[in-house]
């Protein structure tokens, strides 16, 4: 883990507060990935801030703002529909680091797997996902996401 993601002990929340933040982060990711898996382009993009930045391999430049995220999600869903397979994401090994400014820095493993009609599921990507989550209108939103894929590093 990189040093910038580490919270100092003096800014660590009370254990009960941390447990609540951790549960909120887990629920956030479960909701966000399920929306992505059912092809909810606009709904998925709404889980990001208006000015979010998402770094995705192998794209040459980061996706910026909700409009870029919506376009990307729709294009990906269209390709998946043409291929006829279902895509599912799994997020695990979640590390949550509350920051003094109220944001959460998170790091987790993410798997994307596809299931073609009548066939066995196949892992497509093994990734590390690093996020900055912020509170917006009473809910968590992703302000910045960096994804690295094991096969491209």
What does this structure look like?
It is a single chain. With 153 residues, this protein is an alpha+beta fold. It is built from three helices and six strands. Strands 2-1-6-5-4-3 form a six-stranded mixed beta sheet, with helices on one face. A hairpin with a 7-residue loop joins β1 and β2. The longest helix is centred in the N-terminal third of the chain and has 23 residues, at 15-37. The two termini are 16 Å apart.
Which outline best applies?
globular
- Overall mean pLDDT score? 88
Strand content: 35-45%
Number of helices: 3
Give a quick set of tags describing it.
31% helix, 3 helices, 153 residues, alpha+beta, disordered N terminus, globular, 6-stranded mixed sheet, 40% strand
Can I get a quick summary?
The protein has 3 helices and 6 strands.
Topology:
Layout: H1 15-37, H2 41-45, E1 48-55, E2 63-64, H3 65-83, E3 86-98, E4 104-115, E5 122-136, E6 139-149
Parallel strand pairs: 1-6
Antiparallel strand pairs: 1-2, 3-4, 4-5, 5-6
